[in-house]
Design a protein that fits this description.
D-Maltodextrin-Binding Protein, domain 2, about 45% helix, 2 domains, four-stranded antiparallel sheet, 11 helices, single chain, alpha/beta
């Protein structure tokens, strides 16, 4: 009799445990669903970073810190540049502080994916492939691509001459992909200055990048034996990627950019760092 009573008690305890486990599993699934963009309005709103940024009172921005004049360090070691000041302007319009996380280009999107940064402000170009994972702000610059070679290079006069040539490029950048599309073989570099060093040493034939990046280098190194032999007819635009589903944050960033454009602040920053206004199409 006693054994049957103990067995019945154990059965009741086991049943209660199973019911609690089912309840915990349901709660976990619900929490995961709330944190995952599902495409409906509720999921997108729950996933939006704007609340998180405002609650923390800080936006964390990823940038290279080695890409002059967009993001680099001045003689005193301060992080400066066009994109850096654009990011600061966005933070000011959002009413929050700003923190920068510097990383090589290849690491920036990984940091965005992992949540270590909230946005990237580093002359990021929109692409259909990137749009599968990220939402993008409105464009805030429009820049031509430029093809740079050594001054004594007579083999490359335009983009059609890139087939089989060694192009010094960041392997995952849109410029690197464009050079590869012309048939060039890519030599990995992380910065414009590094690529030009490879060209001057004969370890690369050319480099394709934003015209503003080359103009900045030539302003700092007016005697460098290099030349720009061609520019693209079309322009590429800089936009700001954020994790998919954060529509409220994208809207807030777009409003900040529009306010900076209307006030003339965006054009003034462009003139300061590029020597020209590249903020209009």
């Amino acid at each position: 009799m006693k054994k049957r009573w103990i067995a019945a008690l154990m059965a009741l305890v086991l049943a209660a445990g199973l019911m609690a486990g089912c309840g915990s599993q349901g709660a976990g699934a619900g929490s995961e669903g709330e944190n995952t963009p599902t495409g409906d309005a509720g999921g997108a709103e729950a996933a939006d970073l704007l609340d998180k940024i405002q609650e923390a009172d800080v936006i964390v921005v990823g940038t290279e810190g080695t890409y002059s004049p967009n993001s680099y360090h001045d003689e005193d070691g301060n992080l400066v540049g066009f994109d850096v000041d654009v990011a600061r302007g966005i933070a000011q319009h959002l009413g929050v502080d700003i923190e920068f996380m510097e990383a090589e280009w290849d690491s920036l999107f990984g940091a965005l994916d992992s949540g270590r940064i909230d946005i990237i402000v580093n002359e990021v170009e929109y692409s259909d492939e990137r749009a599968e994972k990220y939402d993008f702000s409105a464009p805030y610059t429009y820049v031509h691509g430029a093809l740079l070679v050594a001054e004594d290079n007579a083999d490359i006069a335009g983009f059609a001459d890139l087939a089989g040539k060694q192009a010094a490029q960041n392997l995952t950048s849109s410029w690197g992909q464009e050079a590869e599309g012309y048939g060039a073989e890519l030599v990995s570099v992380d910065a414009v200055a590094q690529g030009i060093e490879l060209i001057l040493s004969g370890r690369a034939d050319c480099m394709l990048n934003a015209e503003t990046a080359f103009y900045d280098y030539l302003n700092q190194h007016p005697d460098a034996p290099v030349k720009i032999v061609a520019t693209t007819d079309a322009t590429t635009s800089s936009q700001i990627p954020v994790p998919k589903g954060n529509t409220r944050l994208v809207d807030a960033i777009n409003q900040a950019l529009e306010d900076m454009r209307a006030s003339g602040e965006l054009a003034a920053l462009s003139e300061q760092y590029f020597g020209a206004d590249v903020t209009s199409e």
